[in-house]
Amino acid sequence: MPAEEVACVIMEPVAGDAGIVVPPKDYVEELYALCKENGILFAVDEVQQGMGRTGKWWAIQHFDIEPDLLSTAKSLGSGMPISAVVGRSKIMDSLEAPAHLFTTAGNPVCCAAALATIEVIEEEQLVEKSRVDGEYAKQRFQAMQSEFDFIGDVRGIGLNLGIEIVKDKVTHEKDQAAGLKIIYQAFAKGLAIITIAKSVLRFQPALTMTRAELDRAIDTLHEVFTDLRDNKIPDALVDENVGW
C-alpha cells in the first residue's frame, strides 16, 4: 500500500489482550520514524494500558515517543462510562463540529469522576506505586518459574503482568485447559483473575491495593499453582465451566 494512502497507524504500546506483550523499544522507534518520514499520523490506544497502569502515566512513555493522537477510557472514569481522545492541537483544532461527536460525551457526572480519578492518582502517587508494586510482583512470579514447569513466561511493566501457562517451556505451547483450571480454582479461593490469549493470566490489580492485599493475591495464585502441579484440580471443573 502506498504511503499516501495511509492516514494513520494505530498501536497499543503494550499489547493487552494479545497476552501482555511488550514490544522491543527499537521496533516502536522504527515504526514511529517510518510514520514521520511518510507524513502518517501515529496514534496509540491507551484504554487498557494508560492512567498509570504500567508505572508511567501512559505506556508509550516507556518508548520515549510522543504520539500524534492518544485514546483513553476505562480507568479514566474509575468505572464510569467516559473516554477521551487527546491529540496535537494542529490535529484537534482542524476538526469542525460535529466531527468529534459522541452520544454520551460530556456527561457531567462522568467528567467529575474522571477529574476525581486524576486527582487521586496524583495525590496518592499511584503511578510510582504501580511501578514499585509491579516490580515486586514480577520478581515474585519470576521466582515461581523454577518451581512450576507450566509457567512459561512472566512479562509486563508495572502492575500490568502476563503469566504464560504452557505445556512445554521450550516450545511455549499454550495450555488453555490448565489456564482455565487456574482461574476457576483461584475464584474458589477468593481471587478473580482471567486468562487472555488462550492461556496467559492477566494480572492487573487495582493500583490502590495495599502491599498486604498484593501479597495475598500472589500467595493465593501460588496455592493454586501448587494445586495444579499436584493434580488437585479436577478436569470436570473445566468441562463444566468452559466459556469464561
Can you describe what's shown?
InterPro entries: Aminotrans_3 (IPR005814), Aminotrans_3_PPA_site (IPR049704), Class-III_PLP-dep_AT (IPR050103), PyrdxlP-dep_Trfase (IPR015424), PyrdxlP-dep_Trfase_major (IPR015421), PyrdxlP-dep_Trfase_small (IPR015422). Pfam families: Aminotran_3. Keywords: Pyridoxal phosphate. Belongs to the class-III pyridoxal-phosphate-dependent aminotransferase family. One of its GO terms (molecular function) is pyridoxal phosphate binding. Helix content is 37%, strand content 16%. It is of the alpha+beta class and 244 residues long. The chain has 2 domains: 3-123, 3-Layer(aba) Sandwich (Aspartate Aminotransferase, domain 2), CATH 3.40.640; 126-239, Alpha-Beta Complex (Aspartate Aminotransferase, domain 1), CATH 3.90.1150. Strands 5, 6, 7, 8 and 9 form a 5-stranded antiparallel beta sheet that branches. Strands 1-2-3-4 form a 4-stranded mixed beta sheet. Helix 4 (126-145) packs parallel to helix 6 (211-229). It starts with 7 loop residues before the first strand and ends in a 5-residue tail after the last helix.
